[in-house]
Design goal:
With 186 residues, the chain is an alpha+beta fold. The protein is 28% helix and 38% strand. The chain is elongated and about 55 Å long.
């Protein structure tokens, strides 16, 4: 999938996209912090969930203290992903959360503008955000939107989660609530 300068990636494929290997939780400062023995959760709250069929992503806001790190307190979110037979947690610190929210807002606007034209095309069409695709070393999750015959939000962690009938706007609303929670928890 190639990215243009405007930040939009569109690919037409005859079959499902090849799964890009997303980085591990260690690529997030929050992910590294919670793995330390000295880590202590100061605060956590369930923010929301996005689900469709058997696929579910639950989002929890976290504040973690870890004296062994340069930042004694790190805030962010934990995604708890699950599909039958598989579960995984992915962490995003506050900076990554803001970047993901910004990317979802861009993706939602691109979907609203371009999806109607693309939905009648042959094969599968995907709209993604280059901001994330070009920085896979910084994001433990990437998000695309599948247009064409069966629209779906597509989340890539080390596994692929397809959420039919969910949109970037659905995820953006939950991320916005997470940002509000973290800002109010100061």
């Amino acid at each position: 999938m190639r990215c243009s300068r405007i930040g939009l990636a569109i690919a037409f494929l005859a079959s499902a996209p090849a799964m890009a290997q997303a980085p591990s939780a260690e690529n997030s400062p929050l992910g590294r912090a919670v793995q330390q023995r000295q880590a202590r959760v100061l605060n956590s709250a369930r923010i929301g969930a996005i689900e469709s069929g058997d696929a579910r992503a639950e989002i929890t806001g976290l504040a973690v203290a870890n004296a062994s790190l340069s930042e004694p307190e790190i805030r962010g979110i934990r995604f708890d992903f699950s599909i039958p037979g598989w579960k995984e947690s992915v962490y995003l610190d506050e900076q990554q959360l803001h970047l993901l929210k910004e990317a979802m807002d861009k993706l939602a606007a691109d979907v609203a503008r371009r999806a109607p034209q693309l939905s009648n095309s042959r094969g599968e069409g995907y709209i993604g955000v280059c901001d994330m695709a070009n920085q896979l070393d910084r994001f433990p999750i990437t998000v695309d939107y599948r247009v064409s015959w069966y629209p779906a939000l597509v989340l890539r962690t080390p596994a692929l989660m397809i959420l039919p009938d969910r949109t970037p706007s659905d995820l953006s609303a939950i991320l916005s609530a997470a940002i509000d929670y973290l800002q109010g928890d100061r």
